[in-house]
Amino acid sequence: MVEIKKGHLLKAVLFDMDGVLFDSMKNHTLAWYRALSSRKIPCERDEFYQYEGATAEWTINLIFERTYHRQATKQEIEELYTLKSKYFNELPEARPMPGAKEVLKIVREHGLLPVVVTGSGQQSLLKRLTEEYAGFVDASTLVTAFDVEHGKPHPEPYLKGLKKAHAMPDEAFIIENAPLGVKAGVAAGVFTIAVNTGPIPEKQLQEAGADLIYPDMSALQKYLPQLLAGHHNRA
Hints:
Layout: E1 9-10, E2 12-15, H1 25-38, H2 47-50, H3 56-68, H4 74-90, H5 100-109, E3 113-117, H6 123-132, E4 142-143, H7 156-165, E5 172-176, H8 179-187, E6 191-195, H9 202-208, E7 212-214, H10 217-228, E8 232-233
Parallel strand pairs: 1-8, 2-3, 2-5, 3-4, 5-6, 6-7
Helix pairs in contact: 1-4, 5-10, 8-9
């Protein structure tokens, strides 16, 4: 069994948001599918699970290059993302992921700082994040699509998360659920745990470089104290 390296001074845990803290990916995928289909742009709903963690610009450009063999204009990106956000906000409210708050409590009990690193720019969900997880997450420990030039799978989001935590790569670990996010964590040099909360084949998370894989946040909650046992931290 792979373990977080013992003997290291752990300072922080970097969390993805969608599919980790909120059960929101089914809403994101449906909203993307409706937005693009309304403009007669061919796509499949489930393909958007593969793009989780990327910025909206990256996702739209990927679809445009495939469909039109060009990148989208700034106006096209803004219009499509506005439409996607409209559809997202019309859907039933995404609930907190089962086990997520318990994982955050364990992290705090071990003296570690939670930092959220998300590719999302969905304002309605970002607002709920700091409300639902008050006491664990606030604006000072949040990295979003608005804070980076390069989204996941580029390491920039997680490198910025480390900076917010005043931590080096070996002083933190990541909790992710998507291949692009896992790749970003690995590229940042951080131990990365995947929770497979969507329809992504586990093999894809393995190939992306996940150090450990759990079926969901509740399973991680069960094993996290054991994983953290014997670690020094700043408490």
